[in-house]
Amino acid sequence: MNSLKAGKYPEALGRILMIIGGIAMVMMMLHIVADVVLKHTLNDPIDGTTEIVAAYYMVASVFLPLAYVTFSEGHLIVELFTSKMSGRPLRLLTAISGVVTVFYLFFLIFVTVDEAVLRTLDGEAWETSVDLVAVWPSRWLLPIGLTAMGLIVIAQVIRWSRGDGEDDRQAPPGV
């Protein structure tokens, strides 16, 4: 994995976001357990559990760790056509696929930021059985996670374009 390092600061950001995503997963588990316990013991479930779990915990658990998954080689890589490649051709193909990935991520970031701005201005809220739960803040988790992933991919593309990788036979993940 040493050859796939993206840089000190992007990786630190990825680790921080991964920890936050993990905390969200633990909070989701505790929230659901508390809801079930209260429902079956006191016949008084926590209002808005489904909405909070769907809008906040799940989104944070999925999108915030994307940067960490990228630099830790967690994405699936199919090497059907590249398994026998090495050296400069592999680095060139990796750089091209990295650039395509970055453009796709920038498109997704643009779309998710646009949607987050619209939902923030609207004050988006979901209706529960007794009240409304504001969910517009969770819309910002997508562009945050995607941007962090984009920074990692850009750093990897730059590193591999310069030939800084230790092992030329292996392409970096996520690109």
Topology (SSEs and partners):
Blueprint: H1 8-41, H2 49-63, H3 66-71, H4 87-122, E1 125-127, E2 132-134, H5 141-161
Describe it for me?
With 175 residues, the chain is mainly alpha-helical. The chain has one domain (2-161). The chain is 64% helix and 3% strand. It has helices at residues 8-41, 49-63, 66-71, 87-122, 141-161; strands spanning 125-127, 132-134. Strands 1-2 form a two-stranded antiparallel sheet. A hairpin with a 4-residue loop joins strand 1 and strand 2 (132-134). The protein is elongated and about 65 Å long. The two termini are 15 Å apart.
Query: Which spans of ≥5 residues are poorly predicted at pLDDT below 50?
Result: none
Q: Output the number of helix runs.
A: 5
Overall morphology: elongated
> Sheet with the most strands?
2 strands, antiparallel
With strands numbered from the N-terminus, the spatial order across the biggest sheet is: 1-2
Radius of gyration: 20 Å
How far is the N terminus from the C terminus?
A: 15 Å
Instruction: Give the class from helix and strand content and strand pairing.
Output: mainly alpha
Fraction of residues in helices? 55-70%
Number of domains: 1
Order of helices and strands: HHHHEEH
Number of strands: 2
Q: How much of the sequence is in beta strands? A: under 5%
| Mean of residue pLDDT values | 88
